[in-house]
Amino acid sequence: MAIKLFGFWRSLATLRVRIALNLKGIAYEEFSVDLLKGEQFADSYRAVNPQMVVPALIDGDGPVLGQSLAIIDYLEETHPEPALLPASPRERARVRMLAQIVAADAHPLMVPRVRNYLENEYRLDEPTRAKWIQHWSNAALKAIEIQLTDYAVPGRLCHGDTPTVADICLVSQVVGARIFKFDLAAFPTVTRVADECLKIDAFARAHPLKQPGAQTAH
Amino acid sequence: MAIKLFGFWRSLATLRVRIALNLKGIAYEEFSVDLLKGEQFADSYRAVNPQMVVPALIDGDGPVLGQSLAIIDYLEETHPEPALLPASPRERARVRMLAQIVAADAHPLMVPRVRNYLENEYRLDEPTRAKWIQHWSNAALKAIEIQLTDYAVPGRLCHGDTPTVADICLVSQVVGARIFKFDLAAFPTVTRVADECLKIDAFARAHPLKQPGAQTAH
Questions:
Q1: Does residue B138 share a domain with residue B73?
Q2: Which of A163, A206, A212, B118 yields a CA-CA distance of 20 to 30 A from A197?
Q3: A-chain residue closest to B142, CA distance
Q4: pLDDT tens digits for A86-95?
Q5: What is the pLDDT of residues A20-60, one digit of tens each?
Q6: Are A49 and A56 in contact (CB under 8 A)?
Q7: Which of A3, A16, A79, A100 has the most B C-beta neighbours within 10 Å, making it the best mutation to test the interface with B?
């Protein structure tokens, strides 16, 4: 197998890469790094990805690639069809902006290492940590909701009718919010687009709860 | 003037866009949005960028573009020379990964809205907030230090001898750490590369303390 993906069933950044691989029809093998057990800090994984985070991707003889959006850009450049970005620079910038509202504003505040820091350093209880996550999740979803309504581009997805990296990131954020059981009523366009995406097999198959690790965990 | 940049002298994400514009020799006019005074929440700015963050860029008749890395990709596509990304997909992925270790892992935890949340919701005092910032800043700088040593690519900068978006992000993180007066002794390669970059006029001119707003603030 040419492509190896190191991820975790519940990781939303891994979810993004899984969707991109599926949309492009790229065969890959996924290796689980259990973030809840701390397997990302094991020497064996540190040798794979010195940043000790997931996702990481190895294509052929390497080197290892990290950061979900960098990996998706790599897949876009090596497997251009179907494209996950529009053709014109302005449209590409809009799609990338939407993706980064999730991947560079909200999600970094919700990852396990940050939740662990809030718990271990500040002794915040679980409801207070959940409120933190919901606060930043809502900020991103609200920003995207405004983009998809007041600054809408025609189509049933974020930018037209074909999936882009904006849809991939939006779905990752909505799936995460639903795992945390957050109320999403204030974001009707966001949830409509996410549900449209999740009707597509490439998205549906990538869902955290469809991964082998989820079955073991439940 | 064709390009308008909305930013703030101290904003590290604005710094990134400023460096990219300078490196590419693109003329622009910068408009200050004072984040300390809350000008990003004014109706006049909300009409420019509904996400109410900086940087935002308007090229000609718009629409507004947001998110520093999305803006830099847009500049790369509309003004390809000099290139801020290498030519091959694998090399581009490495450079993007380094950039995103800063822009998507560390910096989102250090922005004013997060520091304000820690202060207002958790009543954390200034030294405790500084420790938070230093923790995440160090995590990113350590990850990059390892990449630049154990996984080094020959050259005096992050990836060869010409500036890339990885250098832009690395400099933004180092400049931020120095504004906070963090000890950077554990990251000798990172600081050497940052100082090499800061010898380049396009980087030096973009420095927060060289901006008009900094003069007024001091």
A1: no
A2: A212
A3: A51
A4: 999 999 999 9
A5: 999 999 999 999 999 989 999 999 999 999 899 999 999 99
A6: yes
A7: A100
